[in-house]
Amino acid sequence: MTPRSSALDVDVELGRPGFALSVALRVEPGEVLAVLGPNGSGKSTLLGVLAGLLRPDRGRVVLGGRTLTDAGRGAHVPPHRRGVGLLAQQPLLFPHLTAEANVAFGPRARGVPRRAAREIARRWLSEVDVLELADRRPAELSGGQAQRVAVARALAAEPDLVLLDEPFAALDVDAAPALRAVLGRVLRAGGRTALVVTHDPLDALVLSDRLVVLDAGVVVEAGPTRQVLARPRTAFTARIAGLELVAGVAAPTGLRAPDGAVLAGHREPGLVDGVPAVAVFPPRAVAVHRERPNGSPRNVFPVVLAGLEPRADVVRLRAAAAPGGPGWAEGLSADVTPAAVADLGLEPGLPVWFAVKATEVTLCPAPGETVSAR
Fold first, then answer.
1. What is the Cα 23 distance to its own chain's centre?
2. Looking at the domain assignment, is residue 202 inside a domain?
3. Whole-angstrom Cα distance, residue 140 to residue 171?
4. pTM
5. What top-level branch of life does the organism fall under (predicted)?
6. Are 47 and 104 contained in the same domain?
7. What residues make up the domain containing 253?
8. How far apart are CA 188 and CA 342, in angstroms?
């Protein structure tokens, strides 16, 4: 059967005590969209709306030209008729059925004859590299094997849209990379339209074409995955991308931080003086000095070392604000070599200077109250 590839259009609002979701986004046919955000940002609520488990207070969900939800007209297609496949953190396989029967369940539910459904199931089990486990029941499978069967089951139903809810969260460190590669391959090969919710930027990089970031129920960042992670505009995105971020206001000479200090950097096109902006730079770009440095660095500020964390071939230095120094330096990081730690005699509680060359700093517009993800 030819895989379906459908566009998804969402424009919904949903209110709960202490929380409101207001999201407008579009996923193109065959596109994989990643959704990131801190806990409580609305990721699970959005999936619930798309799967038909939650009804929005306002707005519509349209998939492949079919209206699945229209709050204004009271229209709501139930979950089992939406053509939406959901892959959750847990495989949720039927315990009494074999792997093959689990995967054949979707085609059989659509009216596919038993023999044809069996052939579809075996093809998908082969796609995810577990055909030899076709006769085993879930209790006889490892976590990674069971999740591969769950992938096959979700795709064998030929959904118009695949929803992936932290699909690797419950797997160990050995099983997750292998399944990530398998899922990336089968989504690309089939041209599947998919939306993946994750906390891991590696999931987004491997699986998705575009990325949106939710915070407090609204989209605060959106764009091609690598672009968003390379130029984050919120502290959450910067943190998961392994970058440092300072918020302030765009000024003619750089970013004016809340204390009035200016960080020089490379301005992105369209950045206008006087608007909220952020300065972004990697920890590896931060040089550490015992005394205030002279020379080329234009961004120099005092900090107190709060901690030292060995990380592979570098040591990450965590900063606390220094007396009389900028408060925005609290929590910034610098990656230095173990040799530099020894040469400088670095230890927690020591006052030092951080220096960042302007060429290593990117100045971007800060997110507004909402960002279009279309």
1. 16
2. yes
3. 16
4. 0.79
5. Bacteria
6. yes
7. 235-281
8. 48
